[in-house]
Amino acid sequence: MKIAILPGDGIGKEVIPVAFDMLRLILPGAELVQVDVGYERFRREGKAMTEEDIDLVRSCDCVLFGAITTPPKRDYRSVILTLRSELGLYANIRPFKSSAISPFKVDFTIYRENSEDLYLGLEDVTEDEVRSTRVITKKASERIARMACKNPGLKKLTIVHKANVLKSCALFRDCCIEVAEGLMVPYEEMLVDAMAYNLIRCPSRYDTIVTTNLFGDILSDEAAALIGGLGLSPSANIGDKYALFEPVHGSAPDIAGKDVANPIAAVLSTKMLLEWAGKREEAEKVQRAVDTILQERIFTPDLGGIYKTSDVKHSLLKLIEAEI
Question: Please, what CATH class does the domain formed by 103-227 belong to?
């Protein structure tokens, strides 16, 4: 198995090495290919990622990605958006499940359409006005709905939109309903503002949520608060051929280099990678190690603890070594 390792910027360079060392332990035969991409490289060399980098990533089976800084520059294209486009990663999957420290009892997954919406970057910019074009297509809406309907934990599909205002959302809603009905999947629909409210008020009622790119981005950050924070939130970007796994959090330049970043989200993203690759037993070992860390309250400062990134790393590796 060949895995591209892209730490990126900021704390990505601190949390991904934890996952890297864990992969070396748990998959000793895997080829781990490190690729330097991101804004820090852009500042050094004038390019955040080259065509050669993309070709190297394509030669791998999947990607483990850290975090990226995307400055508001017209000449800078987001690395993660580029990778999602180049690799055809149309489904962003973000699971949220209670742990020993979660303030709420939840177990749901957000399926976020990952290839269009406002994130296409179709903008007309003038001095006095910016017009951003939102693109929602039938093809993309149907395929994310089909992906959501495959969720092993599915009991009822919740389709989130703003169809009472936006015709683009009406198309998304109708496509999702058609897919759900065709697959005989129970469903409900909800306006995104009502969803934002109910996700806090009664999160335990949901198991599978499907929505558009922008709404999914916002709702999944909100959902992270239900399980203890962004430092515990993993994600997967899935396409027909490739997959990329990354923690939900950003590059956090304010704490970069201080050895205080929480590596758990990166570790759980690696667990998702192992599941995708069919390595169920290895994925379970990772989950057990994380559960033990949380039960023993080996917390970085974002969770109210006193431990450093390196402390969590050593504890995780020791737990996994004990199982090998």
Answer: alpha beta
